[in-house]
Structure formats: C-alpha cells, structure tokens
Amino acid sequence: MQDSPAIEQDIEDRDEGFVSNYLLYLLAAASEAASAQFHARVRKTGLRVPEWRVLAWLHDRDGEMITRLARISLIEQSRLTKIIIQMEERGLVTRQGDAQDRRRVRVWLTDTGRSLSATLVEEARLHEARLLSILEGGDGARLKPALAALLETLDPESRE
C-alpha cells in the first residue's frame, strides 16, 4: 500500500527543520492528538475539558481546594472558580469552606458528579490502554514514568 502525498509530505517535514523535532512541539502535538477522541467523548456528556479534569481529580482526591484544581485543570484560578460555580449549579460538585481556614474553599463531588466521573475515568483508562498499545518495543511502559519525572522536575507541586 502506498502512502498518500500528504502523508509523504508529513514524513518529509518531520525529517527536516526545528519544529518537527522540537520537544515542546512534540509534547503538545502528541497530547492534542492523543486527547482528541476522548475529549470528543467528554463533550458528548455535556462537559468541557477543564470540567472533566476537575471531575477526574476529585474522583481520586475529593475535597480538593480550588487553587489545586486550577493547576490540574491547566487554567487560571478565577476562570476555574466560575467553572466550578457552573458545575455546582448543574449538580456535579458542591463547594464548602475549609474546616481549618474558612477563607479556603474545597470542592466535593455530588452523587451525580461521582457517578459521571467514575464512568469517564473508566473510559479514560481504556482510551489510555489503547494509546499505549500503539507504541512498540516497551515505549508505552517507559513513556509515562519519563513524562512524570520531567513534570516533577519542572513543577514539583504537580505531584502533590
């Protein structure tokens, strides 16, 4: 089977130039390509991607502070606060003052949010397994620890 002209051009482009071999481009492009199908599924549930990230994090660490959720959601805190309010209005989460410091706000899943997050986390695990199975020669087993180590080195708070 012969490759299409567009694929041949893409292969040629990868062999040349800065961007096609630039780590930051490769990370961003791979993330975008790997996320596209799953994010389409997320949107079919009526969620936006930052909302999915909040639900996924709360699935594992319910009762998180908004400041931490903003870091995980990869968006600015004031924007996430508005999103959290909308999620609360839709019955997915509830906000409560922190027991030790009432100035801090923690976010908790409702039963509806917990059910939706459980479903999507399971689908995300299956999606990830399919992606990792594409990689050959054990690259999938090495990829996640390598990226986690890079992230921890660049942003130690990311692993808290």
From TrEMBL:
The UniProt record lists the keyword Membrane: no
Keywords: DNA-binding, Transcription, Transcription regulation
Residue stretches making up the HTH marR-type domain: 20-152
Any Pfam family matching the protein: MarR
PROSITE patterns: HTH_MARR_2
One Gene Ontology term of the molecular function aspect: DNA-binding transcription factor activity
Protein name listed in UniProt: Transcriptional regulator, MarR family
Protein's organism: Lutimaribacter pacificus
